[in-house]
Structures are given as structure tokens and as C-alpha cells.
Amino acid sequence: MPYPAHDTVFTWAAPALKVGLGALEETGYELRLRKARRVLLITDQTLRRLGWPDRVAASIAARGIDYTIYDGVHIEPTDASINEAVAFARSGGLWDAFVAVGGGSAMDTAKAVNLLATNAGELADYLNRPVGRALSPTTPLRPLIAIPTTAGTGAECTALSILDVLDLKVKTGISHPALRPELAIIDPQVTMTMPPEVTAACGMDVLCHALESFTARPYTAVARKAPEERVVYCGANPISDIWTEHAITALRRSLRTAVHDGDDLAVRADMMLAATYAGMGFGNAGVHIPHANAYPIAGRVRDYRAAGYAGTEPLVPHGQAVSLTAPAAFRFTFDSAPERHVRAALLLDPSVESIPDAEKLSVALIRLMRDIGIPAGIGAVGYTAADIDDLVDGAMRQQRLLAQAPRQPGATDLAAIFAASISNW
Which of 138, 181, 227, 354 is most enclosed, with most CB atoms within 10 A? Predict the structure, then answer.
């Protein structure tokens, strides 16, 4: 039969999940099922001090499995930090499996380490074009178990590893189905030590994942592709929609409480599930303008240092960066899919029913951002109107993300979005 010119096929994938209080204590059992004998556990020094990686390591040792801990993960990974981790892994010989304990930085580092410890070549060989060569691995990767410690990135569900390329001052990554973890262990107890500011930023990352993937261009909006040409981000689709709607609903229910009463275990568990739901959505459908804008906001920071985050380096946390232009971005995309924007707004905040449709989602976002202490706009993290051209330049380099927008923005459109985001209220 003749096929239409647009694509009629979408792909959807997710890791196996193990969810619940105490689930991380079963890591060793899961590795034993996978016949692992030598395991590299990848984490960061802050988490090491909190003790979670060592609890996971104790579970591994209890099953008679040899392990090594690498705790050199850099928050917001760079090509330099990834290369250091890869060098460590390669110097240790062959590993049967990898375990990531941490937020998106640890999980994305572990994905890149898994790739480069099992395949020849250098990091640049696998980075997305045009920064890298976008090669595919030729050797199967080892099992990767992801144990998220923040309710935010959803990286436990995705086939992406995101990093900053320092010399180019650009954020890019590796995108390939082989990177997706084999198993995600979701244990809410690990988020109980998150400060309110970190909880808020991570929650906004979850929300933007869900909203962007729910409003992404549909998978049928692209030209028909051969199987080997399909990318990981295939566009909004019926299965991703289910998970993103669940994520938005959970965030409405729990994010404010998680920020203001972090000792509520049930709310922390709800937030962990929301992050995973959103990861299962955007890890297939994709994200768009707010994430494209976030990369230069975070990557070109000068002096801003976010409260609640360890370290002395200037930092706009990813969850803050993605949220700062989201209200203006969704005003821009509204006309492309009004019904989806309205649906998302009412799931997030039913009280916006009386607001004009084109403003519903932006108003719902701003109310939430104010309630949980997110900066008021890009001006609050150090940017002025004089920086807009530079920010637009950085966002325009993220064509892989911008391509998923339901309405394609040009440089002038992005400049208007940044200008409207200097202060959201």
C-alpha cells in the first residue's frame, strides 16, 4: 500500500523499574542477576559525604561482587570532566556493569563512561553533530543501573548524555538508544536530604520536561524516515502523552509541599515518580524551546551562585535555567496547539480556568515559580538586555531541540522570548 509522505511510526522505550522505600538496598541482587563480577559505581563527592553511594556499595559487596567507586563527577558535566571519568574507567580494565548514583550529572557521566569504556574512540566521535561526529557504538554496552537521588532530571529513563564543551561554550551531548539504563532503581529516601532550593529547581526541570514533551511537534509532523534515520526524540506521541500528563498531575499535587515540607516521605515519593514519568515522556517525545534556551543561560553564567548548591563556582542550576524562559516560550508556541496548552495548564493549576486561553499555561507556571522561590527571570541570574544576542546565539545552536518545537522559532523569535523573560513578574 502507498504510505503518506509524513512519518507514521514512532518509537518508545524505557528502562525496567524497581520502585519503593529501600529499593537501593537491592542493587547487589540486581547486579548478581546480571552476572556482574566487577562493577564501577559512579557518583559525586557531595553524595559520597551523605553516604548514599556507600550504602549502595554495601549492597553490592554483600552479594560478593567486586566494586570500585569513582566520585569525581562534576555537577553539570563538561567534556573535561567526562574525559577524566572515562580515563579512570579505561585504566581499570574491563567492567561487567556500571552503577550511577546521583542526579543527572552522575547518570549522564555514567552513560558516557559506559559507551567509551566499551567502545574505541574519543568523546568527540560520539557527540551530536555539528559539534561531534555522531558515531554509533559498534560494541554492545554493559548493563547500567541508574539510581537517581534528585526528583528532577529523569535521566534514569533517557538515552541521552548531556555536557558542556568548554572551548566552544556550548552544551551538547550524545544521543543513542544504547545509552539508556537497563534498570532504574527509584528509592524516595535518597531525596530527603535535598535542600528546598534544590527541590524547587529539580521540580521545575521535571515540569518543563513534561510540558515541553506534551506540547512538542507530533511524530507525524516530520517527513517519513527509514528506520536507521529515526532519532531518539521522535515527537509527541500517545504513549509519552500518558506519562507526561501523570507527571504534571503529580507535580500539582506535591511540588509545593516538597519544597516547603521536605520531611514528608509520601510527597518525596510522589516527586520521584513524577520525575520518572516525565523521563519516560520526554526521553522519547523530546523537549524544545525552554531547554534550548536553558543551555546558554547556564553555560554563559558570570557571577550568579544558586542558594542550596554546594561549590563556589558560578552556577544557574539546570532546573532554574529551563524554567526562566518557559512562560514566554509557551506564549510563543500556544497558537500551534491551543488545546494541548490549555490541557496542560488545567492539569497543573485548575484555578486558571478563567484566564484567557493563550495565557493559562504561562500564568500557571508563574504562580508556581513564585510559590517555590524560583528566580523571577533571567535578570535575576545576572543577564540584561545587552546579553540577549549572545543568549540567542547559544540557543540557536540547539537545533536538535528547537526542531521539536511545535512552532519553529527563528533568532528574532528567541530574542523576543529572552527579552520577555528578563522579569516574569
Answer: 181
The full set of domain ranges for the chain reads 22-186, 196-420
Quote the pLDDT of residue 224: 75
What is the CATH T-level fold of the domain 196-420, as seen in this structure? Dehydroquinate synthase-like, alpha domain (1.20.1090)
pTM, two decimals, is 0.94
* pLDDT tens column, 107-122: 999 999 999 999 999 9
- CATH code, residues 22-186: 3.40.50.1970
